[in-house]
Amino acid sequence: MLVDTLSVRLRPRTPNEAIDLGVRLCQSAAPAVYRCYFVAFIPVLAIALASTELIGWYSTIVIWWFKPWLDRTILFVLSRAAFGQPTSVGDLWRSQWRVCWRPLLFLLTVRRCSLWRSLTEPVYLLEDGPAIGSSDRIIQIRHRVVGSAFMMTQTFIGIEFSVVMGLFSLFWWFAPTGTSFDLSQLFSEDPPVFFAVANFITYSLGVFLLEPFYVAAGFAMYLNRRAELEAWDIEQELKRAFAA
Predict the structure, then answer these.
(1) Apex CA 74: angle with CA 214 and CA 7, to 5°?
(2) How large is the greatest C-alpha to C-alpha distance in the chain, in angstroms?
(3) What is d(CA 13, CA 84) in angstroms, rounded to the nearest whole number?
(4) 150/117 Cα distance (integer angstroms)
(5) pLDDT digits (tens, 9 = 90+) for 45-65
């Protein structure tokens, strides 16, 4: 990894400062992130829609289950953006085996319920850590920041829930005058089509909008942790000094 080519300025940061750095990185790379993310999101939506006949409105669980798989596409774009490299859909296509397929089973089973996956996922994708045998490196990266990574995950879960509920409420705001809805019908065995459609649309939008920022926050915490472990900030300053 060529540290001197980093386009973000590394320095010792608190976990909260690192999260803020990640959000700003995601904002700066948003066009490339969402372009590639959308391409990866389409097959997940297709699988979820195809499962509607079998599990009804619970098809949103398919989107939830595939989040770690989607995260890798986002992380791939962000990791290149951190080094000033633009990413196109073609770049993603050429790297699809490494990004999308190689760790698929591991991602959707063991890694699915990780409480800090955005912090540790770079070990598997960027360091090519094996699915089995990376525990020591994971422990090293998590050390001192595991609590912050856990709280960050919970915070994003809360934000996602709020956004989804806010989007869901729009269906009431724009409903024809005199129309009434019984929210308890959503949890019935056979909810009305309206509720199923509204639930699917709002959850899909919520995940699509927020997941890049969650991945970016964890990625920045990972970069900050590596700077602490390997003194990247000092290396960057020395190279700038000698270059001048």
Answers:
(1) 90
(2) 73
(3) 21
(4) 9
(5) 999 888 877 776 678 889 999
**Count of alpha carbons within 13 angstroms of residue 129, beta-carbon side:** 20
Structure-token match 């920022």, residue found: 213
CA distance 18 to 28: 15
pLDDT for position 242: 45
d(CA 169, CA 104): 35
CA separation for the pair 41, 39 (Å, rounded): 5
Q: What is the DSSP code string of 97-162?
A: IIIIITTHHHHHTTTTT-TTHHHHHHHHHTS---SSS-HHHHHHHHTTTHHHHHHHHHHHHHHHHH
pLDDT in the model for residue 238: 46
Interval 142-168: pLDDT, tens: 888 889 999 999 999 999 999 988 888
